Amino acid sequence: MKYFIHTIALAAVLASTGLASDASTEKSVAWAEFPNWIESEFGKAADHGVTPFFNYSGMFQGSPVGGVSQNVAYAHEMLFGATFDMEKLTGWKGASFKISGAANSGRNLSTMIGNVFNTAESYVTPTGMFYEAYYAQTLFDDFLEFRIGRMVAADLFCVLPAFGLQAGGGIDGNPTSLFLNSKFTSSPNATWGATVKINPSPVVYAASGIYQATDRLGLIAYHGLDFSIRPGDGILMFAETGWTPTFGAKSAGSAHDKDGKTVAESAAAGLPGMYKFGGYYSDFPLASATGDAVEVNTFGFYLIAQQTVWQSAKSPNHNLALWGGVTYSPQLDVAQMPLMGFGGTVWQGIIPGRDQDQFLCTWLTGALGSAFAPAEAQAGSNPTAETVLEMSYIINLTPNVFIQPDIQYIIQPNGTQTPNALVIGAQFGCNF
After folding, report:
1. Which of 43, 127, 170, 198 counts the most CB atoms within 10 A of its CB?
2. Is residue 376 part of a domain?
């Protein structure tokens, strides 16, 4: 909470003192124009080869019904840093370097409800963290891309545009099952890694990556500054192929009608899609909840897709997209969530005059293995599955600032007979 207060206080002070949009003028910037001023200043820096970024998301929510207990919670995540364009700075074509940090705080409402799928994507390791620091290079007219350094698997593997929209954490960014069944990494917990991606055509790609697998992920004591590779560490490898077609696209032109007259035909942007299949392998040992099984070579697979199915002829900002997927890990004795299915819709421009707003409906179901809940496994009563239904509406106040009312209904928290829980809240944030 203190980071949020500090951020708001700083913004208020800067606004009240009258920031200048240009050094040669003394014109103050109104509070309403503050986000535009930040975007402008960041753009000026990018023109010189340094692209700073700042992302904040905060979540207030409460559970008035169901779960182990009813409570309220606030959590936030702040990511900040910069990408250095080495071509602009040094003439090194296709090269860049990214460095970032995080400042996070808050409480996890899911620990009070007793459910698996985190109710707030804003709740992550609650402390200040050194995050990513990696070098990236593109070669042969973007045919080949590679990265090396401190990074996360979540940036490249098993991710769709729709995954970044939910307020709940069950699918925000990446499916929860990947985190439960492997040492999968996401913000703000980076490890050593290297990735390669090839783009043989504009609509087909293949990617692979290797990352350090360690049990020191997310430990507050290190604050992301433990760069060591120790004897007990392992590796996590990913491979993925994807297809990104656009159906129905056409250029402006002319045609002949039934009478032979030439008529103009307008251009059509088409309906974009994204289809991905991938898998992972790790030699990091995973133990079952009861301690009677250990797997050294673990692996899993996933299939995910997103497709725009309708777009207004008058405005491409009015559209409807469907998305969904499944993850599977066959090692049932140690996989905490062997099977996870998910899907949803993204409807943009559903309210007239609100072209940038998005209405979201989301469904998640995770089948839980005996490796997930030690108490239930020891008692011989294995958990079954948890399901979350979520509905939210993203209100874009400016191109950079949003607020997102959200409601979630959790069925069978932790896959047990815990009463179904209702979660109501709102996420708010900014992205520069």
Report:
1. 170
2. yes
Q: Structural domain tally of the chain?
A: 1
- Do residues 155 and 173 lie in contact, with contact meaning Cβ atoms separated by under 8 Å? no
Establish if 5 belongs to a structural domain.
Answer: no
Residue numbers of the domain that contains 275: 32-252+261-431
pLDDT in tens, 276-319: 999 999 999 988 766 777 888 999 999 999 999 999 988 889 99
The domain that contains 388 carries what CATH number? 2.40.160.180
| Nearest alpha carbon to residue 83 among 65, 101, 93, 97 | 97
Cβ neighbours for 85, distance < 8 A, ≥ 6 positions apart: 46, 49, 50, 51, 96
Query: Could you give the percent of the chain with pLDDT greater than 90?
Result: 72
Residue 283 lies in a domain: yes
Q: How far apart are CA 108 and CA 120, in angstroms?
A: 8
Spell out the alpha helix ranges (H) of 246-307.
none
The alpha-helical segments, DSSP class H, found in 182-290 are none
Q: Are 161 and 358 in contact (CB under 8 A)?
A: no
